[in-house]
Amino acid sequence: MSHASAVHAKPPGQWAVPIDARPPRSAALQTALFALYFNACILVTHATQYLFVPLAVLPATRPYFHAGIRYTKHAFGRLIVAITQFFAPTKLVLTCEGARAAAVVRTDKKGRFAGLDLPRRGVWMSNHQVYTDWLYLWNIAYFADLADSITIILKASLKWIPFIGWGMQFFGFYFIDRSNSDEASLGKFLRGLGRAQNGKLLLLIFPEGTLVSKLTRPKSAAFAEKEGIEDLKNLLLPRSTGLWTCLRGLRDVEDLELVDFTMGYPGIPPAGYGQSYYTLTSIFMQGVPPPAVHMHVRITPARELPLDDRAKFDAWVLQTWRDKDALLDGFYETGVFPVSEKGSVARAEVPIKLRGIRELGDICCWAAPIWLGWALYRLLR
């Protein structure tokens, strides 16, 4: 029996049923435990960030401030792995395309999964179906030893969310207001990113700009009609401006590469809406995660992209999204991403779990230590 046939031979679980059609189930205990654990770790991590603030004052100590913030960012990355492992167990199924495909997945002497070898300095882009997309991509960054270097461009409305938004400001994420885009500010941000002191760079961007949904699908169709082009079936038409700006702003990074992810979730039907099947609440609080998250990976050196010709770049992005749409057609038919004819493909299953028990301490920054002696015993009494 083929792998695809085996997938369809298994009876579907709750994940294959739309959320509003699922039978009611009690999830109060899991919800309470998740909220307690996640929020406690977030609070400790954010409090630890403030401990590093004095180091940012003097130029001589500023590198230690940045190193401390990277540690808290890595702590959050480990937290993302932990909540998946403990509250919503699943695995990542990677298919990697191209000449470097076989080298992406690293194994130990016994052939067991040991990590991922992805570009140390890259722009990551992906289609956007579910709000957990960024979370599973952060899992990938963890296994590629890049979790302390991830940077995300986000909507400005997220900047002031208590604790989470404040923490993301410490992480150095860029918040953009589409109604008042400041290209000079973005350019300065990108140049600083290119001079990353730890030699690593990971900028994550979703060119569709938002999720595929009942609200956004008509907008994509209207834009396609206006431009005289064919709309996509499973995805939204991409916006190339953000990706164009980021790649050009980082073009002085000689070894920069574009890492392109196509993500697929079991249970979502062709042309379906991911949020009807998977939400942060349904996955982590109601305990119905996807049985696997499938990712097809393509890696392209940035120097090979047509960054000097906007029309050619726009055409390249559109064709890339049409290729993604075709990949998802195959995924929805067989349950796996099909083997590409464009190059070799390596496939690996990545279990989402922490590398060791020590990382449980890192998640809470080892309580920093007991939050700096209970603030130096309340400032020496």
Automatic annotation (TrEMBL):
GO molecular function, one term: acyltransferase activity
One GO process term, biological-process aspect: phosphatidylinositol acyl-chain remodeling
InterPro entries registered for this protein in UniProt: Acyltransf_C (IPR032098), Plipid/glycerol_acylTrfase (IPR002123)
Keyword annotations: Acyltransferase, Transferase
GO cellular component assignments: endoplasmic reticulum
SMART domains: PlsC
Keyword Ribosomal protein included in the entry's annotation: no
Ranges for domain Phospholipid/glycerol acyltransferase: 122-266
Family: Belongs to the 1-acyl-sn-glycerol-3-phosphate acyltransferase family.
Name the UniProt record assigns to this protein: Acyltransferase-domain-containing protein
Native source organism of the sequence: Tilletiopsis washingtonensis
